[in-house]
User: Which sequence fits this backbone?
């Protein structure tokens, strides 16, 4: 098996840090997630910023 962080090959049997080769690589990966180094691809919705035709803004307290 190959470690996703350092790319070293290792035997996964009995390794508590699997799928990483060591606890260090496991913590490096966690740090990348927490630091937002990894992201998921997002397809922007071009209509997400448009206001619907039937939109009515909420009444303000001063308008009563």
Assistant:
């Amino acid at each position: 098996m190959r470690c996703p962080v350092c790319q070293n090959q290792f035997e996964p049997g009995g390794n508590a840090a699997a799928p990483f080769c060591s606890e260090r690589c496991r913590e490096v990966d966690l740090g990348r997630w927490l630091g937002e180094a990894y992201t998921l691809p997002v397809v922007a919705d071009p209509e997400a910023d448009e206001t619907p035709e039937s939109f009515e803004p909420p009444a303000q307290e001063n308008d009563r």
User: Anything to note?
Assistant: The two ends are 69 Å apart (CA to CA). The chain is about 20% helix and 0% strand. Residues 5 and 25 are 6 Å apart (CA to CA).
